[in-house]
Amino acid sequence: MTAAPVKNLTLADFLHLPYVEESPAWEYVDGVLQQKPMPKTRHSMLQKRLLTAVDAATEDYTALPELRCTFGGRSTVPDVAVVVWERIPVNDLGEPEDHFTLAPDWTIEILSPDQKATRVIDNILHCLKHGCRLGWMLDPDDYAVFVFQSQRETEVFRGDRLLPMLEGIDLSLTAEQIFSWLQVKRR
Q1: Distance between CA 124 and CA 165 in Å, rounded?
Q2: Which residues form the Putative restriction endonuclease domain (predicted)?
């Protein structure tokens, strides 16, 4: 992961850099450019299963992978952004606008081994400050889900304790269930 403090680089300048949308994505936080780590197998498996589970559990929301969210002076790319359909800006053709300038309703980050938890938590807290209602940080090495909610104390979920969910998403999940998705079943 690369962090490069750049003086006099504005958010607008950052968004026009030619490599910003390269994979893995770049983020802009407090004038610092940082490239997210390239997802590994466990990360990708959890991300795929979360997207599928959330989308299957609701018609009110959509779960989007690696959606650039630019708001409140930052541009970040959550692993999964869950957004109520009505909040997605659309153009004259009824198609989504390419630039999403709101906090997601629910942000989900999957901690990578070479990623700093502090930076991930900082992005989740920024989302909550700007209207996000739920944030999860999955730690696959500890089989734990850190849960962030506005006006509530951060909690760590392990085992079979039900995780908080947004109203309108009919999904019951535990940390144990989520991390069981990492078990590869051989035929």
Answers
A1: 16
A2: 12-174
State which amino acid sits at residue 131. Answer: G
Return the amino acid letter for 45.
Answer: M
Give strand pairing partners of 140.
none
| Domains and their CATH numbers in the chain | 38-180 (3.90.1570.10)
The DSSP symbol for 26 reads: E
Q: Which amino acid is at 173?
A: L
Question: pLDDT tens digits for 127-136?
Answer: 999 999 999 9
Cα 60 to the chain's mean position, in Å? 18
| HSE toward the beta carbon, residue 70, CA cutoff 13 A | 17
DSSP 158-184: -TTPBPP--TT-----BHHHHHHTTPP
- 8 pLDDT above the threshold of 80: no
Distance of CA 34 to the CA centre of its chain: 15
Alpha helices (H) in 30-130, listed in sequence order: 41-56, 117-129
User: What are the pLDDT digits (tens) for 33-81?
Assistant: 999 999 999 999 999 999 999 999 999 999 999 999 999 999 999 999 9
> Diameter of the chain by CA atoms?
56
Average the pLDDT over 165-174 and give the result: 97
